[in-house]
Amino acid sequence: MAAAKLLAIENAENQLKLCQKKSEKSREAWQKHEQDSETLNLEIKDLENSIKIGQEQLQKAEEKLNNLNEKSINFNELLEKSKQNVTEYTDKIKNQKTITQQNKELMFEISSIHEEY
């Protein structure tokens, strides 16, 4: 009987050691899980910050693009006005040349008439 009790105590001790080992492994696994969870949370926060910064940069880029588009429209309007002005002045210059040529011809005729008298 004493041998049976001793055997039962040894079995109980072995079971206790086995349970302690399982408990330690479980504790280590839980700590690893907590570390992984914390690492993932930090990575998520970093990604969220990166997304926020990216969105801000995108918004600034869109604002700059809109500004450039507006300037481009204004530039195109100015360019069109300049082309119209060039055409207008070119026409005026042609008219002035025609008038000048007519004046020369008239002056020549007047000069010729004066010489005749």
UniProtKB/TrEMBL annotation:
Coiled-coil ranges per UniProt: 2-99
Superkingdom of origin: Eukaryota
Keywords: Coiled coil
Name of the featured protein: Uncharacterized protein
Organism, scientific name: Aphidius gifuensis
Lineage: Eukaryota, Metazoa, Ecdysozoa, Arthropoda, Hexapoda
